[in-house]
């Protein structure tokens, strides 16, 4: 965290802007940042965080503070965790404390980190896809949201994934790697033991099953719609939220599964960030009208903001560097995306429809056969010129992870790679780069993951589950973005939005 402050020239105001929505927990003394929140120490550990991250004390049955939760969590019954305190129904001295604790928090949906600092052990648990990002540094005795926040020394550049190649040529960090050789990203569905700084899998359990027959399609779809709607409803009822609407399948699934709760939504929007996305904006506008959100809907034109110079090159360059520093030197997004992200309506959380790609088995090859080569290609690691180089260099790391999966997941390897190795980088790690809002996925729920991947990938890849979900949602017959592009009359209507 000291390195992040030094990057800001020691300015607390610059730090508060550049590292908003971030956190750090350490046994070392944390620098005191004006306006930031700090917990009391537990066994020498202290948590410092941006006040925009909700903070909940966790107390055992005797009222003893055993840790904290940062972020937003929805319980299996649809109730929000906290907001200020969460009381366990069992005591710290219960012989089955950790079994009960894991059974309680594993079903939580949302975007959160749970810190449990007890005499029985010291652990950190994470949301299902690490949407609230987390990296750790054993030598610094630290868990934090990003690389700079985890350090009190200059970055020791990681030569396994050189940052310059990722920044210039694209690709991602992956397989726990960051831009620092000694800072590692956590793996979803594992807890971090703070005494050894080792990761241990807590989900799925060895006896969990993911093999429902394709004939369960409609039942699974209805269960997904119910659970997703419940999660979204709980979030929008308790937090000021903005809802993006686009021309894709997942956007309307998110909106229509929670249609009964959308009166709580503060803002709805679509943004133009490319030539194709103007069709998304047209569909988003029509969806807003159908959902009764037209009075709260706005169009954000990232293309115009760049082309007209409303966002100068100097400002865009500053946003680009801010993005890279916040994320630990990810490949920066386009100027249009950077500008549009700055114009997102003010809200505590901007909802997203990610993770639903699981319903379409988007990680699976047509052959549905396993190969390390295909798995690595989906992670899109940077730093190497060819797939063969990646296979030789990273293949053993990928295979080592596969070998550690529970037997019941072996037929769902690509789904778990998506959840445990791709999304923590593309969602948690990447979306942290935008400072204007926090992004939250209501589908970030292990129960929803289990439902989606329980059906055979062959059925999901043919979009049968997707179609069944839309039937269960009663989504309207409003064309998708690609259909708008192909229809001359609809394309003309979309063009009028930006004439």
Description:
- The protein is of the alpha/beta class and 499 residues long.
- It has two domains: 2-201, Glutamine Phosphoribosylpyrophosphate, subunit 1, domain 1 (4-Layer Sandwich), CATH 3.60.20; 214-357 and 425-496, HUPs (Rossmann fold, 3-Layer(aba) Sandwich), CATH 3.40.50.620.
- The chain contains 18 helices and 18 strands.
- It has helices at residues 2-7, 12-18, 97-105, 163-169, 217-238, 249-257, 277-291, 302-307, 313-327, 335-342, 372-379, 387-403, 413-431, 446-454, 457-461, 464-473, 481-486, 488-496; strands at residues 23-26, 37-38, 46-49, 55-59, 65-74, 85-87, 109-118, 121-126, 135-137, 142-144, 184-185, 190-193, 198-201, 241-244, 267-272, 297-301, 349-351, 438-440.
- The strands form three sheets. A seven-stranded mixed β-sheet has the order 6-4-5-7-8-12-13. A six-stranded antiparallel β-sheet has the order 2-3-1-10-9-11, with no helix packed on it. A five-stranded parallel β-sheet has the order 16-15-14-17-18.
- It starts with a helix and ends with a helix.
Query: What is the level-2 CATH architecture name of the largest domain?
Result: 3-Layer(aba) Sandwich
Shape: globular
Weakly predicted, low-confidence segments: none
Number of strands: 18
What does the radius of gyration come to?
A: 22 Å
Figure out the total of helices.
Answer: 18
Q: Which CATH class of the largest domain?
A: Alpha Beta
The helix content, as a percent range, equals 25-40%
Oligomeric grouping of the chains: single chain
Q: CATH topology of the largest domain, what is it called?
A: Rossmann fold
